Amino acid sequence: MRHDSATKEWRQELVAANVLARDFNPEGPNESWCADTAYISTRESGPHLTAIEDLFSRMVVGYGRSRWRVGWSSVRP
């Protein structure tokens, strides 16, 4: 099977840099945040929930919900 090098380079650009290096215990607040998106099936609200957590305090510092998978545009502090 032949692979196109342009496709391989394009896919590598989609991978985010590992800036945390698995260090999930910062020394102070607002040094490291973690974000995740979950699909929630309900009748009343959008099915996608995005949350941002401060890894120092383990508190949610922002969240958003959306009917589509673009929750980043709806995150609120």
TrEMBL record:
Name assigned to this protein: Transposase is3: Mobile element protein
